[in-house]
Design goal:
Layout: H1 5-13, E1 17-21, H2 28-43, E2 47-51, H3 61-67, E3 71-72, E4 81-85, H4 98-103, E5 108-111, E6 123-125, H5 132-143, H6 149-162, H7 173-183, H8 189-197, H9 202-212, E7 215-218, E8 223-228, H10 238-242, E9 256-263, E10 266-273, H11 279-284, E11 289-290, E12 294-299, H12 303-318
Parallel strand pairs: 1-2, 1-4, 2-3, 4-5, 5-6, 8-9
Antiparallel strand pairs: 7-8, 9-10, 10-12, 11-12
Helix pairs in contact: 1-5, 2-5, 2-6, 5-6, 6-7, 6-8
Length: 321
């Protein structure tokens, strides 16, 4: 059931103990949104635990440090109200015990993904928003939350993270208005953006070099693929790999980019587009999902087979080039 901001605010005020779920391969939006919501609930005298099934990427630890909150991968005992934050589907919670995951139904889902299939009783979803953080910001206003520096820090990080530092086409006029309000609290926005976008590990630099040397072009250069069948030494963190998703789409003339790699017993594909192609629709045809310009899917096959299936699906649009 879809609900309004007012209904979500009243619901959150009427319960006391929360578990806020964030998605695997965590990014700044899911973490910043959850930390901000946890701080808001604390302001109302509520208790909130932030959960993630995987370790948090090292490059995003600053969000936990700044919030004074930690992330656990152990579900607390007792009765809790379960809220999913920026989670579009069950696979985004991979790493949880299968029996727990199969029976999991959230009390409330807060999200901005175009396609949301997460099992839940209530949904506060706005797919036109560039980040879940923007939804949380508006929800905080509706709940009458006092905008502290700590809450503003997390909200700004969330919104900046998923809007590409306000560069992506999903960024709305209202996004800038909200950001301006957050800046008035005195947060160090320059440092936040540096930590989000310009703070790279040595292993990430090595992976970027590997990616540049692995570029493949199809359909007259409209589609670019990076196949990470062999990872360079020292690259282990998912966050290192996730950070190269933007490389192929930054090349002049490219409309659709793919980064394909093996993760455990699956093939993980990250899809990006620049202007007109809906990669969420492409991903959904293979059981995945996401946004118009950023999506993903998984295969249980080889990297070459996954690439061939995706390229074949793209043929209708791009084989004219």
């Amino acid at each position: 059931m879809d609900i309004t901001f007012s209904e979500a605010a009243e619901y959150l005020k009427s319960h006391d103990n929360y578990v806020l779920f964030t998605h695997a391969s965590a990014d700044g939006d899911t973490l910043g949104s959850a930390f901000a919501l946890a701080l808001m609930l604390a302001q109302l005298g509520k208790k909130a635990t932030v959960f993630n099934p995987e370790p948090i990427p090292e490059r995003l630890n600053f969000l936990s440090t700044e919030s004074g909150l930690s992330v656990t991968n152990i579900l607390p005992d007792g009765e809790h109200t379960l809220v999913s934050v920026d989670i579009a589907s069950v696979p985004m919670l991979r790493g949880m015990q299968t029996d727990v995951l199969e029976s999991l139904v959230f009390d409330l889902s807060i999200d901005h993904h175009k396609i949301n299939t997460i099992p839940c009783k209530q949904r506060l979803i706005f797919d036109s928003y560039p980040a879940t953080g923007e939804i949380i910001a508006q929800l905080g206003d509706t709940m009458g939350i006092s905008l502290s520096n700590g809450i503003a820090y997390q909200l700004y990080a969330a919104i900046s993270s998923d809007s590409g530092c306000f560069r992506y086409s999903s960024t709305r006029p209202e996004t800038h208005i909200i950001a301006a309000k957050l800046l008035k609290t005195g947060i160090d926005f320059a440092k936040i953006n540096r930590l989000l976008f310009e703070n790279k590990s040595k292993s990430q630099i090595a992976l970027e070099q590997f990616a540049y040397n692995s570029l493949e072009f199809y359909y007259g250069g409209k589609v670019c693929v990076v196949s990470l069948d062999k990872m360079p030494d020292g690259v282990a963190a998912d966050s290192d790999v996730d950070c190269i998703n933007q490389i192929p789409r930054q090349i002049a003339g490219v409309e659709v980019s793919m980064v394909i790699r093996r993760k455990d017993d699956e093939i993980k594909v990250s899809l990006r587009s620049n202007d007109y192609y809906d990669v969420a629709a492409l991903a959904s045809s293979f059981g995945g999902g996401g946004h118009v310009h950023a999506a993903g899917c998984r295969f249980r096959t080889s990297i070459e087979d996954a690439k061939a299936k995706l390229l074949d699906e793209l043929a209708n649009e791009f084989n004219k080039y």
